[in-house]
Design brief:
This protein is α/β, with parallel strands linked by helices. Helix content is 39%, strand content 22%. The strands form 2 sheets. A 6-stranded mixed beta sheet has the order 6-7-8-3-9-10, with helices on both faces. About 4% of the residues have low confidence. The protein binds adenosine-5'-triphosphate and magnesium ion.
Length: 303
């Protein structure tokens, strides 16, 4: 279970006059996401969705508030005393105090993240991208949990196959289409068998048809994974209302910047769903009306 309590994020920025100003990207967001659910974070551009997702992943520290995953804090506070520092060093074996900021955020949870721009390594083939992620995850394992080289390779090939990329194992990302790159990022995320996948606008850069296909593939993989192992939780950022409603168990609507929780809309339609299901369409319309209201409010203020 993911529990976000009163998360706020403030960025100090210097304006053109050289004066310090601040920007509040996320304001007081509290959210609980149960295991095995698909939850979408929906909101207009710049409302703080990516920032909030990175805070969930532990890649950014919130200015205020806490994130717990399965009862454990995602980011530990930095050591304050000499004694704490010694035990901290022993635990994390960081290279130098300068690297502290980097290494304190070691993943302590089974999370995989897919970034807004996919972030697969362009100098590695599809297969190498997966093997690399598996090796990183394997480095933290000990004893029998540690996989042999051949097992890593086998797993990588298996997940490429699952996402329909078996024939492209030795191609570089630049040789793949946008949809395939997206599938590669998904294969890499799935290959480490995480409990949580965080996705930042995963289907924004592909055409409408490919997008629908990828959405269905994601739902298929999510159901398949849950059938054989522990439930997989997916938190997905999008600004596409249809996508959010079609995929999710719950749509979390953010207000325009600074991102606050505007509304939480449960989607109880049974799976597999039809995009034209009247329940789904009704929820989409309800959310669109909310956005329309926000836009009208904004234009009233700006007059
Ligand atoms: N490192 C940073 N320093 C200063 N401001 C930042 C930083 N990162 C994000 N912001 C600001 O925080 C706000 C929220 O950004 P964020 O990327 O979270 O938005 P978003 O909802 O993901 O938008 P989009 O839909 O366009 O991806 C924006 O106004 C952005 O300019
Ligand atoms: Mg974003």
């Amino acid at each position: 279970m993911i529990e976000a309590k009163s998360i706020s994020k403030f960025f100090p920025v210097i304006n053109e006059k050289g004066l310090a100003e601040g920007l509040t990207a996320v304001l007081n967001v509290s959210l609980t996401i149960p295991d095995g659910k698909i939850v979408s974070l929906l909101g207009p551009s710049g409302c703080g969705k990516s920032t909030f997702l990175e805070i969930l992943a532990g890649l950014q520290a919130p200015t205020d508030g806490t994130i717990h995953i399965d009862g454990k804090l995602v980011l530990e506070p930095l050591p304050a005393t000499r004694k704490e520092m010694i035990s901290y060093k022993r635990r994390y074996r960081f290279i130098s105090p300068l690297a502290n900021g980097v290494f304190r955020d070691r993943p302590k949870h089974d999370i995989a993240m897919i970034f807004q721009d996919y972030a697969v390594f362009p100098w590695m083939t599809a297969l190498q991208n997966l093997v690399f992620a598996l090796k990183l995850r394997n480095a933290g394992r000990t004893g029998t949990a540690k996989l042999k080289k051949a097992q890593l390779m086998e797993k990588a090939v298996f997940f490429l196959g699952k996402t329909g990329l078996a024939a492209f194992a030795n191609k570089y990302p630049s040789q793949l289409s946008g949809g395939m790159r997206q599938r590669l990022a998904l294969a890499r995320a799935l290959s480490v068998e995480p409990k949580i996948i965080l996705m930042d606008e995963p289907f924004a850069a592909v055409d409408a048809l490919t997008r629908e296909k990828l959405q269905d593939e994601l739902l298929r993989l999510w159901a398949e994974t849950a059938a054989v192992g522990p439930p997989l939780t997916i938190v997905l950022v999008t600004h596409d209302v249809q996508e959010a409603v079609y995929l999710s168990d719950e749509v979390v609507v953010f207000s325009p910047s600074p991102g606050t929780l505007r509304n939480r809309v449960p989607v109880e339609a049974r799976r597999p769903r039809a995009r034209t299901d009247p329940n789904i369409v009704e929820i989409e319309e309800r959310i669109l009306a909310m956005f329309q209201y926000d836009i009208n409010q904004e234009s009233e203020y700006s007059i």
